[in-house]
Amino acid sequence: MPRQTLDVPEVEQVTVLDAEGHLDPDLDPAIPPADLRRLYRTFLLARRFDERMLRLQRQGRIGTFGPIRGHEAAVLGSVYALRDTDWMVPYYREWPAYMWRGWPLENLVLYYAGHADGMRVPEGIRDLPLCIPIASQIPHAVGVAYAARMKGEDSATLVYLGDGASSHADCQEAMNFAGVFQAPVVFYCLNNQWAISLPRARQTHARTIAQKAIAYGFPGIQVDGNDLLACYLATREAVERARRGDGPTLIEAVTYRLSLHTTADDPTKYRSADEVKVVEAEIRQAVERAEARMDAPLLDAFEHVYAERTPELAAEREELRGLLAASEDGSAR
User: What is the pLDDT along the chain (333 residues), one digit of tens a residue?
Assistant: First the structure.
């Protein structure tokens, strides 16, 4: 047999706005003006909330925090494509999607301050909690999507991952399962060029992350992660494809993890001072509501660790309880 070229699909790249912000009318997703304004406001809210959370962390008022700066368009453009009946599975940086889906802001403050209630999913919202272990949320998402199809639901599942997560076995196994069983799931990779301290070049030698979908038998698409319209257009098409029963899609949103302080942006050119004041007031009130709920007993630190408390943990809890009791009556210092 002679050598032959296989008929393997190519990876499509999607942009709607050019580098100067000009719109391609043929690709305009026609988002209603009211939704565009809400998307813009949520973008601004996420950016300012990000800045405030970083200050809170430096003040010791919350713990470790994953900034979103530079990812707002990729996250909001994609989550906008979901219906309320669809599932959203984040990793640890997609909290602007929570904002869009109706989560109270104080939940995020509580979570990053170490309170389990912060990740209690509000009633009626089909989201999973933030996921810190890299890539472990991806098999969960495929399971959610597969279960929804088994139940006959008309829904799709959108799962977020980073370029670093694309190197993990959990990611490969989840994509393979989704391709074999045609699960209605959209894998959305936020390629910000860095996985903690490793550059994207140390994750894969492939030209794109999107092309990895070919090995699993479903489409891979690359989008400009700073183009909200392109992110929405690609996700909308992928979600519709999933709902039709045509299987998964991998979307690679190419963006960059910005530094915490950049001089490249001049917000006075695209927002009003009044709008910023309203957003900052909303964030301040959310922080105040969260901190009002943070006065938890120290003994709560022993809860939610194991389903059944171990003897060692029970002994440590009892020891602390005794110390606290002694401290309250003045016999211990």
Answer: 578 776 667 889 999 998 888 999 999 999 999 999 999 999 999 999 999 988 898 888 988 888 888 899 999 999 999 999 999 999 988 999 999 999 999 999 999 998 888 999 999 999 999 998 899 999 999 999 999 999 999 999 999 999 989 999 999 999 999 999 999 999 999 998 877 777 788 888 888 999 999 999 999 999 999 999 999 999 999 999 999 999 999 999 998 876 432 223 343 553 456 655 676 778 888 888 888 888 777 788 788 778 888 999 899 999 998 888 888 765 444
**Per DSSP, what are the bridge partners of residue 160?**
188
Contact 142, 320 (CB under 8 A): no
Burial of 218 (0-12, 13-18, 19+ CB in 10 A): buried
The sign of the torsion formed by the CA atoms of 19, 24, 27, 29 equals positive
256 Cβ contact list (under 8 Å, min separation 6): 70, 192, 193
Cα 52 from Cα 73, distance rounded (Å):
19
3-state helix/strand/coil string of 199-224: EHHHCCCCCCCHHHHHHHCCCEEEEE
Between CA 37 and CA 273, with CA 278 as vertex, the angle to 5 degrees is: 80
**CA proximity to 91, closest of 174, 2, 177, 207:** 174
Could you give the CA distance from residue 10 to residue 12 in angstroms, rounded to a whole number?
A: 6
Which residues are within 8 A (CB) of 85 and not within 5 positions of it... i.e. 6 or more apart? 126, 153, 154, 155
Catalytic residue IDs: 257, 261, 270
The pTM (predicted TM-score) of the whole model is: 0.81
Residue 196: alpha-carbon gap to chain centroid: 16
Rounded-to-integer distance, Cα 154 and Cα 23, Å: 32
First to last CA, the chain: 86
Pairing of β 194-195 and β 157-162: unpaired
